[in-house]
What does this fold into?
Amino acid sequence: MIKRRYVRTRQLQEGMRIDQAIKDRLDRTLIARGTFLDTYMIENLIHLGVPAVYIREGEEDPEPEKPKVELKPEVKHKVEKMRREDPVKVSLKESVKKRVSEGIQYLYNNTDSSSFSDMTTNITDELMRAINDNNAIAVDINVLKTSDEYTFKHSVDVATLAMIVAKKQGMGREDIYNIGIAGLLHDMGKSKIPNEILNKPAKLDDAEFAIMKQHPLLGYAILKDKKEFPTTVPLAVLQHHEKMNGRGYPLGVTAEKITPYAKILSVVDVYDALVTERPYKKALSQRTAVEMIMSMTDDLDIVSMKTFLSSVILYAVDTTVQLSNGEDAVVVKNNPDSVLRPVVVGCTSGKVYDLATDISCANVIIL
It folds into this structure.
């Protein structure tokens, strides 16, 4: 059984296993979650000003391996008959992921470089090409991550999601491209936030949160004088934490003063932040994050939220899922307007469950 213990940095001992990721101001992973600490790592944590970290004690109980479900011929036939392909999904090759992640790392580390704009457009070109190559209009959010450990995956995820949502909304090529740039650079201001705040393994106090809330302003300050970018890009970076009801930051403006780019960025940034591990919290499941997004009707732009939900695929066709009635089922068709409730076929019974529209399935959910 695993226990999690909060330990002051100066009380850490060699061999303890850290239960959070430690990152620097450029969002580079310095110590991965689950690493066994040595003296050098502990000294570095003290040098970075990290006051305390979570330590993992004990071992997880191994989960029993679930036997593979073999479909009866009649069930297999029904699955094949009912099956409908998902919309074309954006896909990034491993080589592209590597180039993009390395490029973003360069940008965060060289905000004053003369090649900053060229590097940004090169990265955006890669993402645009990945979307256009197969005319992608959806994202499989289970495989979106560039990698569990890859640096700057959040920026890549936000840019990719924002571009797909913009495309689904009917924006033109130029707007799709520019919102990709804004997505890549939206957290640029965090490169100016102290490490001890970025890596604090607990909720920030009011003073620390006030500093953290400056990162949109800091990002705007970095980008506003780069004339190669249209004004919509730094403005979207400035506003990506604003809320429709005026309860966001840094300016507290309401819906009518928030740009279309920022309305999209706000939705995808919230989603990806929920499914990304932070020093003070574990990542949420994709399903839980989608449910939380759906509940934020006062905070997020409804049009952008609906477009996001219709652009993401939570349960890809051919995925085997477990239903709340105890039966395993195969996903055969997704409902664009109900991302949590696809059409599935029971592996044992062969029953078709249209979770979105069949009233007899109202009490059945995917676990």
